[in-house]
TrEMBL record:
The lineage of its organism: Eukaryota, Metazoa, Ecdysozoa, Arthropoda, Hexapoda. The active site is at 182 (proton acceptor). Homodimer. This is Malate dehydrogenase. NAD(+) binds at residues 13-19, 39, 99, 122-124, 233.
Length: 320
């Protein structure tokens, strides 16, 4: 079989707190041959700066909606961290009013200029923005459920870090699947499936689960009004983008958790571990064996996910 060895990646929201370090990490990688940076501000400067790094990715900057065609045409992967972040006291859903239309418009542009791209959405509320983008692509006639992902890799990265810390393990060797969605109780770390295998007393397990679910808020509070996680998100977003690139290049056994269209539970979108292929989702690896505690977490998450999904779908379908 002949697979491509060059992957063109676009970042939409490339001048932001996540966008800039994410672009830096992507620029460093030999997996990326073209790096297209789109934002409504500052992309010429960010692109000029990055283009002086002696790595292969040819970097270009594109400012404003009139340049979306140049930014997106021919892209294989589009990562979207465009939109406003939380301030203390806000929920991710409080960002809906601003970010829903940003994601809608970017999804419309993807449908037009790179309909076969694999799209990773970072913009919150992820539980709703992925359904928004999906409905837009359905309307445009370019929807392929294998190609659109809510990026939940930061939840995995955090779970790995916190469990490694608690058990004094090398964090690079820890892997914890995180399923469900990306907000509060919808974030479900499956600690019973962690590798290496770990065990905790009930109250310690509950405290760890809660910390993982609230980790975004922990950063929002610590940043005290200046935004939410950016550096750890850039790291996680780059990891996810590299996995997409590897899958496009024909590497086998590339597995990541992500929030995707799913029939694994009664929620039409649900994050689970996924085997990635050149067209995106190759195999949904499902829930695996859950403890009774984790099964209860799934049941609690489903109604909240359904509500956020409907809100996103209604935003697209009832406003046109
Ligand atoms: P930021 O404000 O620093 O950057 C956002 C960037 O988006 C800005 O450069 C802005 O100009 C740009 N932007 C706004 N409207 C745009 C449009 N129409 N097209 C293109 N770009 C546009 O915010 P940030 O800290 O980078 O966070 C971005 C988003 O990522 C937020 O919604 C945040 O909640 C979310 N986030 C998600 C996760 C996750 O795990 N999925 C983690 C952290 C943050
Ligand atoms: C995170 O988990 O850090 C992000 O979703 C940002 C946030 O608002 O918490």
């Amino acid at each position: 079989m002949c697979f491509q060895k060059n992957v063109k990646v676009a970042v939409c929201g490339a001048s932001g707190g996540i966008g800039q370090p994410l672009a830096l990490l992507l620029k460093q990688s030999p997996l990326v041959t073209k790096l297209s940076l789109y934002d409504i501000v500052h992309t010429p400067g960010v692109a000029a700066d990055l283009s002086h790094i002696d790595s292969p990715a040819v970097t270009s900057g594109h400012n404003g909606p009139e340049n979306l065609k140049d930014a997106l045409s021919g892209m294989d992967v589009v990562i979207i961290p465009a939109g406003v972040p939380r301030k203390p006291g806000m929920t991710r859903d409080d960002l809906f009013n601003t970010n829903a239309s940003i994601v809608r418009d970017l999804a419309e542009a993807c449908a037009k200029y790179c309909p076969k791209a694999l799209i990773g959405i970072i913009s919150n509320p992820v539980n709703s923005t992925v359904p928004i983008a999906s409905e837009v692509l359905k309307k445009a006639g370019t929807y392929d459920k294998r190609r659109i992902f809510g990026v939940t890799t930061l939840d995995v990265v955090r779970s790995n870090a916190f469990i490694a810390e608690a058990k004094k393990l090398d964090p690079r060797k820890v892997n914890v699947p995180v399923i469900g969605g990306h907000a509060g109780i919808t974030i479900i770390p499956v600690i019973s499936q962690a590798t290496p295998s770990v065990s905790f007393e009930k109250n310690q397990l509950e405290a760890l689960t809660l910390r993982i679910q609230d980790a975004g808020t922990e950063v929002v509070k610590a940043k005290a009004g200046s935004g939410s996680a950016t550096l750890s998100m850039a790291y996680a977003g780059a990891r996810f983008a590299f996995s997409l690139c590897k899958a496009i290049n024909g590497e086998s056994n590339v597995v990541e958790c992500a929030y995707i269209a799913s029939d694994i539970t009664e929620s039409p979108y649900f994050a689970t571990p996924i085997k990635l292929g050149k067209d995106g989702v190759a195999d949904n690896l499902g829930l695996g064996k859950l403890s009774s505690y984790e099964q209860d977490l799934v049941q609690a998450a489903i109604p909240e996910l359904q509500k956020s999904i409907k809100k996103g779908e209604d935003f697209v379908n009832k406003s046109s």
